[in-house]
C-alpha cells in the first residue's frame, strides 16, 4: 500500500506535467494570434509545433502518472529543458524578424 506522501508526489508530478503542457498550449495560441494579426503564415508552423510539443508533454505526464511508482525522469526533464530553450530561441527570432 502506498503512503500518503507517495500519492501526493504522484499528484504533484502529474500537475507539473499538466502545467508545462498548458504553458506550451498557451504559447502556441499566442503565436497563432500574432500570425493572424500580422499575416505571417510561417508562424502557423511555429504554432503547430508548439501545440505538438504540448501534446507530447501532456501524453508523457499521463504515462508517468499511470506507472506504479514515482521515479526521477532525468532524460524527460532534459528533453523538456532543451525544448524550452529552443522555444526561447525561436521566440527571439520571431521578435527580431517581425519588427
* Helix count from the secondary structure assignment: 3
| Helicity level | over 70%
Tell me, briefly, the overall form.
elongated
SS strand fraction: under 5%
Chain-averaged pLDDT = 85
Separation of termini? 58 Å
- Judged by helices, strands and strand pairing, the structural class is mainly alpha
What descriptive keywords fit this protein?
single chain, 99 residues, 3 helices, mainly alpha
Describe the structure.
By secondary structure, the protein is mainly alpha-helical. The protein has one domain (4-97). 85% of the residues lie in helices and 0% in strands. It has helices spanning 4-38, 42-66, 74-97. Helix 1 (4-38) packs antiparallel against helix 2 (42-66). The protein is elongated, with a radius of gyration of 16 Å. The termini are far apart. The relative contact order is 0.14. The model has no long low-confidence stretch (mean pLDDT 85).
Amino acid at each position: 500500500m502506498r503512503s500518503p506522501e507517495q500519492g501526493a508526489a504522484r499528484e504533484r508530478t502529474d500537475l507539473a506535467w499538466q502545467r508545462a503542457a498548458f504553458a506550451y498550449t498557451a504559447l502556441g495560441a499566442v503565436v497563432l494570434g500574432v500570425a493572424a494579426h500580422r499575416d505571417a503564415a510561417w508562424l502557423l508552423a511555429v504554432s503547430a509545433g508548439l501545440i505538438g510539443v504540448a501534446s507530447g508533454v501532456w501524453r508523457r505526464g499521463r504515462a508517468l502518472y499511470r506507472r506504479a511508482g514515482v521515479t526521477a525522469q532525468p532524460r524527460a526533464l532534459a528533453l523538456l529543458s532543451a525544448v524550452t530553450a529552443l522555444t526561447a530561441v525561436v521566440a527571439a527570432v520571431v521578435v527580431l524578424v517581425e519588427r
